[in-house]
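In the design runs reported in the main text, the only information available to the sequence generator was the tokenized backbone. The following block is the verbatim input for one such run; it is reproduced so that readers can re-run the procedure and compare outputs position by position.
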């Protein structure tokens, strides 16, 4: 049977190429909103972190109606660190819309997600977006996409993919760069004509592959996936199986409630058929990759193999003197439960217990992947300490190998020298250098070990005065490149507990760049600044000026303090050395030495026990 009344598609692209903005317009023109309904921009970026940072972090489902045909749309992240989100949802769709910026052309993440889609045999619709940009290259970008398809060994059908020219912000699309579009009708028509309709056996026993997990306080865990075969209805007795654990006994469960995506919401249904993307509750132990099947034929479906993590950090209980002041969840049991709960919905995250009962090894795709997890936890009220990131080495054929990334850099010509010098010192291998389409910027590609990029992004922004663009993508494992120094500075360490004074900061600021301001509470062992020398220096920022009986004209002269440096979480992760930690609480981000004063540490542990 072929479901001609249904299409399932995903929108994939590099970060900031306009996926979510295009989905906004598809929803508007697809009738998802009532007339005069207030609509906010980037409505699919529903999370606070997504809206603050302007990026998509989690893949999300929506749908629009085109005549009698329902189009299920999956909006995906564009950042390489969230590639696991893209990989797992590709089993849910029959085709993809590949979005490419009209000026930048195919970027590293474009290649990664397109390769995953082509491995599954999906049809591709190429959409050249942002055609109204002044530096758009409407003649060259389609050729670059075709070259990429050829490099990835595309089939003849995929090489003949239709190409559309679109402006997501204006909500227009056309088949020719010379013809201005009026609406998104050409895109909708191409989806209906080119993307295959779901095909399967509607009367066979049920098979539903779970590709995503949601949670609701009222109904518990909610599985999301596509029905590959058969049908499902509310109250039906089903079993949970998994292709990768064939020896495990099938677990019986019951479908308590069933939903389908309807615009931005979910509509309750009594029954769903082959090809539908559905949400269901009732199966408390469901995980991503499981198959919901009929008890008559418990045959599981194979789930896509998700790429392995490439780096890890140590998460530990906060044992600083300020432990427990701001956080709600501070014990190792609470942190452990939260981390393992995250692995149920993030397939590219790995968590395992550390050497002691109060620390955990958390592995992910990159610094942003783990920093988003830390930021989410601190907003939920968790307190913890985090180490600096470490890459995961592998032994391949008896040779120690490390992860290597392909870095694409776009910078003005005058900054090329600084970039080449820094990356050369970090064991980067130059692959390609050329002038970009604008003629005033350079496009540089490097192959560089992942660990050599730690701490470089903030340096890069400084070296290029904020005008440079850097993107990286995991490019496999290569033999270990040897030792490398990524940090050439030391730290200024507080030598006393107390509150920072203007007098103490004034005397300490000559030693380096300060991280704290006046009246900031500090403890012994806390990092209060950066030392230009490659050594740590103890400073007393709590020192007060002693009063004297002698008065003079300049005795009470105002102390001029240099503005201190405020770290974001990502900058703190890049900055810290092996013997340092980040103390993360709901209200503060502090840097500290790994081993603190014994007396302070014992006080903190006693406070936690209370």
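Verbatim output:
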């Amino acid at each position: 049977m072929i479901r001609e009344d249904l299409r399932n598609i995903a929108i994939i692209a590099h970060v900031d190429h306009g996926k979510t903005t295009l989905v906004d317009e598809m929803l508007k023109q697809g009738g998802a909103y009532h007339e005069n309904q207030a609509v906010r921009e980037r409505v699919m970026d529903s999370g606070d972190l997504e809206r603050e940072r302007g990026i998509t972090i989690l893949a999300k489902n929506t749908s629009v109606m085109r005549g009698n045909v329902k189009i299920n749309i999956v909006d995906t992240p564009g950042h390489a660190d969230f590639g696991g989100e893209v990989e797992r949802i590709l089993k849910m769709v029959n085709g993809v819309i590949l979005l490419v910026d009209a000026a930048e052309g195919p970027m590293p993440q474009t290649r990664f997600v397109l390769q995953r889609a082509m491995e599954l045999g999906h049809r591709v619709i190429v959409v050249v977006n942002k055609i109204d940009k002044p530096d758009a290259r409407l003649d060259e970008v389609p050729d670059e996409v075709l070259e990429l398809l050829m490099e990835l060994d595309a089939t003849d059908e995929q090489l003949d993919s239709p190409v559309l020219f679109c402006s997501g912000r204006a909500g227009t699309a056309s088949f020719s760069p010379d013809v201005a579009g009026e609406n998104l009708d050409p895109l909708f028509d191409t989806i209906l004509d080119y993307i295959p309709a779901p095909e399967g056996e509607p009367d066979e026993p049920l098979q539903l592959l779970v590709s995503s997990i949601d949670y609701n306080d009222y109904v518990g865990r909610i599985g999301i996936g596509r029905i590959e075969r058969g049908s499902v209805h509310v109250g039906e007795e089903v079993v949970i199986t998994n292709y990768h654990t064939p020896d495990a006994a099938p677990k019986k469960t019951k479908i308590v409630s069933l939903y389908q995506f309807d615009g931005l919401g979910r509509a309750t249904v009594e029954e769903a058929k082959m090809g539908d993307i559905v949400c269901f509750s009732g199966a408390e132990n469901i995980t991503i990759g499981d198959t919901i099947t009929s008890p008559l034929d418990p045959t599981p479906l194979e789930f896509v193999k998700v790429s392995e993590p490439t780096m890890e950090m140590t998460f530990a209980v906060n044992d600083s003197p300020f432990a427990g002041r701001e956080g709600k969840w501070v014990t190792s049991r609470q942190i452990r439960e939260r981390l393992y709960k995250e692995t149920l919905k993030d397939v590219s995250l790995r968590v395992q217990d550390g050497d002691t009962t109060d620390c955990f090894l958390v592995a992910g795709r990159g610094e942003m992947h783990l920093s988003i997890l830390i930021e989410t936890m601190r907003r939920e009220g968790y307190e913890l300490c985090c180490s600096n990131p470490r890459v995961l080495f592998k032994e391949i054929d008896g040779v120690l190998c490390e992860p290597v990334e392909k870095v694409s850099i776009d910078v003005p010509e005058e900054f090329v020298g600084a970039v080449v010098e820094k990356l050369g010192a970090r064991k980067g291998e130059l692959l390609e250098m050329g002038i970009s389409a604008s003629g005033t910027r350079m496009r540089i590609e490097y192959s560089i070990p992942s660990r050599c990029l730690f701490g470089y992004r903030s340096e890069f922004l400084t070296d290029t005065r904020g005008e440079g663009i850097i993107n990286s993508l995991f490019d496999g494992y290569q033999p270990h490149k040897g030792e490398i120094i990524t940090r050439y500075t030391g730290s200024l360490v507080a030598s006393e507990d107390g509150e920072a004074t203007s007098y103490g900061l004034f005397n300490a600021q000559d030693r380096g760049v300060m991280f704290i301001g006046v009246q900031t509470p500090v403890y012994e062992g806390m990092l209060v600044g950066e030392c230009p020398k490659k050594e740590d220096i103890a400073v007393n920022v709590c020192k007060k000026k002693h009063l004297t009986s002698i008065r003079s004209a300049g005795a009470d002269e105002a102390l001029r303090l240099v503005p201190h440096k405020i770290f974001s979480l990502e900058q703190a992760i890049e900055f810290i050395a092996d013997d340092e930690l980040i103390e993360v609480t709901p209200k503060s981000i502090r840097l500290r030495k790994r081993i603190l004063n014994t007396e302070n540490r014992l006080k903190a542990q006693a406070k936690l026990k209370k």
